[in-house]
Design brief:
By secondary structure, the protein is α+β, with helices and mostly antiparallel strands. It folds into 3 domains: 5-110, Tetratricopeptide repeat domain (Serine Threonine Protein Phosphatase 5, Tetratricopeptide repeat); 114-183, Sandwich (Immunoglobulin-like); 216-335. It is 46% helix and 18% strand. The strands form 4 sheets. A 4-stranded antiparallel β-sheet has the order 3-2-5-6, with no helix packed on it. It has a 3-stranded mixed β-sheet with strand order 4-1-7, with no helix packed on it. A two-stranded antiparallel ribbon has the order 8-9.
Length: 336
C-alpha cells in the first residue's frame, strides 16, 4: 500500500524543502495526465509524489488513476486507507478536502467490485497453491469471498502428486460468483518393480587361489592373447606403411634431379604435391602405429609365456609347454 505517514505525528521525519518542491511538481504532472486520461502516467506521478511527501491529496488522485487503469480493488483500498487514517484538525485544508472526496467516491466504487470464492476438492488447503491471475492467495482465503477487478479471471490450483486444475471466466462489474470449485486428481503412481537378487556362491580357482581371483595360468593366456592382438595390429599397420612408401616411390618416378640430391616433378596445378604430403603423413602415422604394436605386442606375449611357464600345476600332473614364434604370430602349445 502507498505510504500514509501523514497520519503519524511529530516523531515522523519531515520531508526536505527540495522533496516538497519535487513532490509538488510531480503532482502537477500527474493532474495534467489524469485530465488527458493518461492513467499510467498519472498513477506513476502521484505515487512518487506521495512517497516523497505523504498526503491524502496525492492518494485520492492516485485512486482515481487506478480506477482508470481498471485496478478497482487497489483503488478501493487506497480510499479505505485515507478514511481509516483520517486527518487531524491542524492539517491543511487540501488534506481535509481529500478525506471528504475519498468518503464520497468509495461509495460509488464499492458496488463495482467483483467477488469470487474459490474452493479446492481432493487435497487439504495447506497442501495446495491457488493463484488468481498469477497471484498466489493465502490458504486461509480459500472458500471466502474475495474482491476482484472486472475482466478475465484465470484460476489455477496445483499440489505435489496431483494434476493441475484450472478455470477461466469473464467477470463483470459488481458480479458475485458464489464459488469456483476446482477438483484435484492424484497422478497415477508408477508400478512397483520387484528386483530379485540372486544369491551367489564364491568360486574357487583351479589352482586353489582365493575366490574371485584369476589363476596364473588363466592370466597367462589372457596376456598372451593381448600380445597376439598387438602383434597383429603392428603387422597390419606395417603393411599399410609399406603401401604408402610404395606410393611415394611411384610419385617420384620421372622426376628431374636437382644439385642437392632432390628431384623436381612436373606438377602444374599443385595437386601432386598435395597428394604427396597426405601420403607422407599417412606413412608416418602407420609406421608409428606399427612400431607401437610390435613393441607392446611382443612385451605382452613374452609376459604371457612367462606366466604360463611358471604357473603351478593345476591338476597335480606334469605340464609341458613349447613356445613358438612364426610370421606375424607367437604362442605356445603343450599339455596342462
Amino acid at each position: 500500500m502507498p505510504n500514509v505517514a501523514w497520519a503519524q505525528h511529530q516523531n515522523s521525519p519531515q520531508p526536505s524543502a527540495a522533496d516538497r518542491t519535487t513532490a509538488r511538481r510531480l503532482g502537477i504532472e500527474g493532474q495534467i495526465a489524469l485530465k488527458k486520461n493518461d492513467f499510467d502516467t498519472a498513477a506513476d506521478r502521484f505515487e512518487r509524489a506521495n512517497d516523497l511527501v505523504p498526503a491524502p491529496s496525492f492518494l485520492v488522485r492516485l485512486a482515481r488513476a487506478r480506477i482508470g487503469q481498471g485496478r478497482l480493488v487497489e483503488a478501493y483500498e487506497i480510499y479505505r486507507t485515507i478514511i481509516r487514517e483520517g486527518v487531524e484538525p491542524d492539517k491543511p485544508e487540501p488534506f481535509k478536502r481529500a478525506l471528504a472526496e475519498a468518503q464520497q467516491e468509495v461509495k460509488g466504487l464499492e458496488p463495482r467490485l467483483a467477488w469470487v470464492s474459490v474452493n479446492v476438492v481432493g487435497v487439504r488447503p495447506d497442501e495446495v497453491e491457488v493463484s488468481l491471475n498469477g497471484s498466489v492467495i493465502p490458504s486461509a482465503a480459500l472458500g471466502a469471498q474475495r474482491p476482484m477487478d472486472p475482466g478475465m479471471l484465470h484460476v489455477e490450483a496445483k499440489a505435489d502428486g496431483y494434476r493441475t486444475a484450472e478455470a477461466e471466466m469473464q467477470l463483470s462489474e459488481g458480479q458475485h460468483v458464489p464459488v469456483i470449485e476446482l477438483h484435484l486428481v492424484a497422478l497415477p503412481k508408477p508400478p512397483a518393480v520387484a528386483v530379485e537378487v540372486a544369491e551367489t556362491q564364491p568360486v574357487m580357482t583351479a589352482d586353489g587361489g582365493e575366490p574371485g581371483f584369476m589363476s596364473q595360468s588363466t592370466l597367462g593366456y589372457v596376456v598372451l592373447g593381448l600380445g597376439g592382438i598387438g602383434l597383429a595390429v603392428g603387422g597390419v599397420t606395417g603393411l599399410m606403411a609399406m603401401d604408402r612408401r610404395s606410393q611415394l616411390d611411384d610419385m617420384a618416378e620421372g622426376c628431374t634431379p636437382l644439385p642437392d640430391g632432390r628431384c623436381r616433378v612436373y606438377d602444374p596445378d599443385g595437386s601432386l604435391q598435395t597428394e604427396a604430403k597426405k601420403t607422407r603423413d599417412e606413412l608416418k602415422t602407420f609406421a608409428n602405429a606399427a612400431t607401437i604394436g610390435f613393441v607392446a605386442g611382443g612385451a605382452l606375449a613374452a609376459t604371457g609365456l612367462l606366466l604360463l611357464i611358471t604357473a603351478p600345476d593345476d591338476s597335480g600332473g606334469s605340464a609341458s609347454i613349447y613356445p613358438y614364434v612364426g610370421l606375424g604370430s607367437i604362442g605356445a602349445v603343450g599339455t596342462f
